Hints:
By secondary structure, this protein is an all-alpha fold. 67% of the residues lie in helices and 0% in strands.
Amino acid sequence: MKELFAAGILVISILTICFGLRQNDFMILMPLYAMAFVAYIFILTRTRQDATVRKVLLVAIGLRIVLVFSFPNLSDDIYRFLWDGHCTLNGISPLSYLPSEIMSDPQLRDPYFAELYQFLNSPDYYTVYPPVSQAVFIMGTMNDAWSIESSVLVIKSTLLVFELGLIWLLFQFIRKFGFPLYIILFYALNPLVIIEIMGNMHFEGVMVFFLCLTYYFIHKNRTILAGLFYAFAVGTKLLPLIFGPSLIWFLMKRKMRWLPFLILSVATTSILFLPFFLAFDVWHFLDSVNLYFRKFEFNASIYYVLRAFGQWLTGYNQIAVIGPVLAVITFIIIIYKSFRMGVATVRELLALNLEIFIIYLLLATTVHPWYLIVPIFLGGFLGNRVVLAWSLLIYLSYHTYMTPLFREDLRIVFAEYALLGLFWWIGQKKIPGLQMRTGDIS
C-alpha cells in the first residue's frame, strides 16, 4: 500500500511538471521534482518482489505513454529539432546556413521558418546534432500540413519506441546475468530520465538504447554487431566517442575480435556522416562542436573555479582558453584510464565507462540535467548512489531560467556541487540491496 501511495505521488508530480509548468517556474518545479524523487527512492529501496516490480514498471511505461501528449515546455530545443528537419526536407543543409542567414534571404525563408525562428535559442550557430538525430527530426517534419504540436507527437512517439526497446533490453541483461529484477527501476522509474526524455524530448534515450546493444553484443562476443550499434550511438550523440578507447582495449585484453569492431564502427560512422562530408559541411559541424568548448557555459563545477581564477588574474572570462584546455585534459585522462585500468569483465567495463563519463562531466563547461541519463543507465548495474544524488541535485540548475537573461546564481551552483561532494566524501556509494557482486557479468 505504501509503495502504491508513493507511485501516486511520483505520477502526479511528474505529470504536473510536464503538463503544467514552464522553464521559469523553478519555485514550483523544484518542490514537485523533489517529491517525485523521494517517492522514487522509497519505491526503489522497498520494492523487491518480481510481481511488485512488474506493477511498478507498468507505471513507468504508462507515464512515458501519457507524456507523448505533453508539449516540452521546459526546453526550447524542440524548435531547433524542427528547424533542422524542415531545412533538410526543403533541400537546405542545416550545416550550410545559419538560421539567421536563412531568415535574411527571402528565397530561403518561409512562414514555417518564421514561426520557429522566434523560439530558437541558437540562431547564430550551425546545428550540432548528428545524423541519426537528424533522421528523427526529418520524420517529425515530413508533412508540411503538420503543426508544431503534431511534429512533437511524431518525435515523442519515436522516442517512446526507443525507451520501450531499452526497457526490454534491460530485461535481457537482468535475465542473462541473474540480476534481481528490481534494478531495472533504477533507470526506468528515475524522474529525471522520464522528464528529460519523454517530457523534454532529449535524445540521450536513443543513444543509451544503442549503447546498451553495444554492451550486450560485446558480452556475446558478437563484435560486428557491437561495432554497428556503437556507431549508431555516436551517430545519435557524439558523447559515446569517449568510450571508444576503453571498448577497444577491453576487446583486445579479452582476445576478442576487436578489429572487426573497430572497422565496422568506423565504417558505419563514416557512412552516417557521409552527407555532411559530401556537402562540405563537416567543418561547420566541427565549428559548432568547437564553440561548445569555447563559448557555452552552464552548471559547471571545476570550470567555474578556474573561470573565477582566470577573471581575477586577467580581468575577463577565459573560457576560450580554459574550455579547450579542459577538453585536452579530459582526453588525456580518458586515454590513461582506458588503457591502464585492469578491466576483466563487462561489469567492470560498465564501471570504468561510468567513471569516465563522470570525469567528463566534472571537467565540462556545460552540464545540463539530461547529461546524467547515461550515468543513470550505467549506474543502475552498479547501484551507484552518487549518480542518484546528482540526479536530484542537478535540477537546482533550472533556477537559471527564472530570469529573462538566464543568469545563474553561483551560490546555488556551489550548493549543488558541495552537497554532491559531501555525499561522495561520506563514502556511501551504494544503496543497500542494490550492490552487485564482482563477476556477476563476465
